[in-house]
Amino acid sequence: xxxxxxxxxxxxxxxxxxxxxxxxxxxxxxxxxxxxxxxxxxxxxxxxxxxxxxxxxxxxxxxxxxxxxxxxxxxxxxxxxxxxxxxxxxxxxxxxxxxxxxxxxxxxxxxxxxxxxxxxxxxxxxxxxxxxxxxxxxxxxxxxxxxxxxxxxxxxxxxxxxxxxxxxxxxxxxxxxxxxxxxxxxxxxxxxxxxxxxxxxxxxxxxxxxxxxxxxxxxxxxxxxxxxxxxxxxxxxxxxxxxxxxxxxxxxxxxxxxxxxxxxxxxxxxxxxxxxxxxxxxxxxxxxxxxxxxxxxxxxxxxxxxxxxxxxxxxxxxxxxxxxxxxxxxxxxxxxxxxxxxxxxxxxxxxxxxxxxxxxxxxxxxxxxxxxxxxxxxxxxxxxxxxxxxxxxxxxxxxxxxxxxxxxxxxxxxxxxxxxxxxxxxxxxxxxxxxxxxxxxxxxxxxxxxxxxxxxxxxxxxxxxxxxxxxxxxxxxxxxxxxxxxxxxxxxxxxxxxxxxxxxxxxxxxxxxxxxxxxxxxxxxxxxxxxxxxxxxxxxxxxxxxxxxxxxxxxxxxxxxxxxxxxxxxxxxxxxxxxxxxxxxxxxxxxxxxxxxxxxxxxxxxxxxxxxxxxxxxxxxxxxxxxxxxxxxxxxxxxxxxxxxxxxxxxxxxxxxxxxxxxxxxxxxxxxxxxxxxxxxxxxxxxxxxxxxxxxxxxxxxxxxxxxxxxxxxxxxxxxxxxxxxxxxxxxxxxxxxxxxxxxxxxxxxxxxxxxxxxxxxxxxxxxxxxxxxxxxxxxxxxxxxxxxxxxxxxxxxxxxxxxxxxxxxxxxxxxxxxxxxxxxxxxxxxxxxxxxxxxxx
Length: 842
What we know:
Elements: H1 31-34, H2 41-44, H3 46-49, H4 53-71, H5 73-76, E1 80-84, H6 90-109, E2 115-116, E3 123-124, H7 132-141, H8 145-170, H9 175-186, H10 189-194, H11 202-222, H12 227-238, H13 240-259, H14 267-286, H15 288-299, H16 311-315, H17 325-333, H18 363-372, H19 378-396, H20 398-404, H21 414-437, H22 442-458, H23 468-487, H24 494-518, E4 522-524, H25 525-529, H26 538-549, E5 555-558, H27 572-576, E6 583-584, H28 590-598, H29 607-611, E7 612-613, H30 620-625, E8 628-633, H31 638-643, E9 646-652, E10 655-660, E11 668-670, E12 672-675, H32 676-679, H33 684-690, E13 695-697, H34 699-702, E14 709-710, H35 723-733, E15 739-744, E16 747-754, E17 758-765, E18 770-774, E19 777-779, E20 782-784, E21 788-793, E22 796-804, H36 809-841
Parallel strand pairs: 5-8, 12-13, 12-14
Antiparallel strand pairs: 1-4, 2-3, 6-7, 8-10, 9-10, 11-17, 15-16, 16-22, 17-21, 18-19, 18-22, 20-21
Helix pairs in contact: 4-8, 6-8, 7-8, 8-9, 8-11, 9-21, 9-24, 11-12, 11-13, 12-13, 12-14, 12-15, 14-36, 15-36, 18-21, 18-22, 19-20, 22-23, 23-24
């Protein structure tokens, strides 16, 4: 006889991973409250509640697509580009050039971005280039960046809404409240206005946080764990620092969710955290192919490894000092609308329109969040009261907010999004209870409504101007919502009341989102695409002419910027296709910044200056050293430029093209050097003269320079820097130069003959990704002039090859492959085990 199989009862874990013994964490309702639930609105709106999960999801997606299409219709048509000339000018000055450049790079080289000479003096542009959606859009739209940007906004908002809706459903929220909550999250102020600033940040963040919340909740409630590593991988691929921010959020969320019905002083709670830690490590591993590169650039940036951080200033603030009243009024008033204190053109709140707190996520979230606490038992009230209290402390005491951001800046940003999630978590669970039971704490509701109306109509700080139209609409919506919520308590009016609440929520998200977008100073597509203006001004024709006339390597400088926004554009080269010296980037190349410091073209310890690099425009001497050969100018007389040793070459529209007479090619040689110690004693002019006579070297490199002459100061002519002196310095440097035989952004090959040992100098920022071979043998690239590249050459004929490969990408790729295999194997193993266990129970 065969043995009778035992019935084995196991936790309800899909893709079973070794888990804590708790099967399910439910959304709690106090038993005394739960027992009083009788007539329900959901019973009368049963057509929604009877829909299958897939059909209900389809209804939500369809509605969301319609609303997104309507709100963003102006940017989907032929009139407006999703770029802005006002405070959101980064969309035009930073994101547009970045996307255009990535797409053009892929088209040109057929590979992921690596090194580019179109940013600063050159920079590794592989970091932060990839996310799955934008990569696909680059392939579809290529350099039509305006299309990439608006579709990124819409796709990420759509996906975020879907995941947040699914998240609310895992909280056992009924279809109708979940639909409303999904809409309020999708159109929260954080993403509506944030996307008009940097579309590659804010829309991605709401998707990531929605995915994380959903993936955590389906593990806690159903044991399904496979999505969590993917969500973590996407976060790391986008921004490694967000792993820290969301790590704090996840720890708090998991803790309070677990503490709702059980004690956190248990081994089971620790096991939950351990499982999430392991899954998170796997997710980091999956994203390593891009994450490591992003992290390396952040670490190597002036704001982390340099002296350009706000950290010391922020740390010096007293821990329990208060912010100014203007900050607190901004917090309060921007809960009601992102535009309560003005729009992107006339904002009057704390800081600026983009970085100020923006907690707006619908009026229901404000009216109903307090109601959540009345459906909880005493312990649960303490748990969530503590979470809310800690959040308020971060708002009240700026030092705690600085600490939350690890003292990287004085802003809210992601913290605003976390507050949005907290408000919606409270309010949608309260709405669901009201929807199911028809019960609400009337005294609290009335007090909340009155308090909100008082804030709207009385709170303001000196210098702040409230938008009268927005204020009027806020009052109307608050009164209507309050009335409908009161109406829902009347049995025969429940269905009507909730129908009106839903309709009002639809009107609200459309009105306030459209209002935020319609008042912005957006670029027209004519401004973006018409020849002769903006990024398509005469510069484009001038660059095309120079490339046809002179195919060699050189850099171009301009006395103007081509952008049409309120802030200057310093990334023109990325769109106009030339090699320049300027760059606007959150993480500029550290060694380029150090070089600019060394020649006194950059203010030291100025965080803003480390992001807005104006290159070598301010020094004709350094322009020569950095291979600037042509100068484009507007509004300058040709005679004046001839006096600056430049000849007029051509003119395109209002852009005049000048050629620098005494220019230097890429790859010049020096037979003299100066030690860093001696160089640092020189003044600004002496430093700029010296680098045309000798290489500034550190102690380690100095020990290798036997046979080269050492100088201790610059040879400044008695008559000062004359054109004759400049010509003599340049002519000497031209004696032995690299004859470039092959050039791409990632590989430079050339030949050179030197009569004596010399230093081959490249005006290229030193980067660990560059490697060099001389006569086929690996050789060391030295850091010279504080941040550029030099190679020591012996006497004779040489073939020199420089090759660039983004650091950590290969190693990160191996880790990603291993992690994906581990993730897939775990899914297969636990699925097989689950199937086997089911068979054993038969």
